Amino acid sequence: MDHHLNILLKVHLISPSSPSYTRTSPSYIPTSPSYSPTYAPQSPTSSTISSSMSSPHIIHDDDLNDNGNLMD
């Protein structure tokens, strides 16, 4: 009897969890626009990373040709 109750409880726990997950999905959509403005200020950071990536390339440029491959 206990075992049967346990299974019923598990099903009962999983079942409400499913609709609640569906509700989480729409609530994630408003988060998306709010993430967009947050991403915009990070854009300068992205260009900083880009310039810092080209910086090491310039440092090692004497070993590399224009394609970034090692010179023969």
Short characterization:
Residues 16-57 have a biased composition (Low complexity). By secondary structure, the protein is mainly α. The protein has one helix spanning 2-59.
Topology:
Blueprint: H1 2-59
How many separate helices?
Answer: 1
Radius of gyration: 27 Å
Mean pLDDT: 55
Head-to-tail CA distance between termini: 79 Å
- Main structural class: mainly alpha
Region (Disordered): 16-72
Biased composition (Low complexity): 16-57
Describe the protein in words.
The mean pLDDT is 55. The chain is elongated. It has 72 residues and is an all-alpha fold. The protein starts with a helix and ends in a 13-residue tail after the last helix. 81% of the residues lie in helices and 0% in strands. The protein contains 1 helix and no strands. The chain has one helix at 2-59.
Structure keywords:
72 residues, mainly alpha, 0% strand
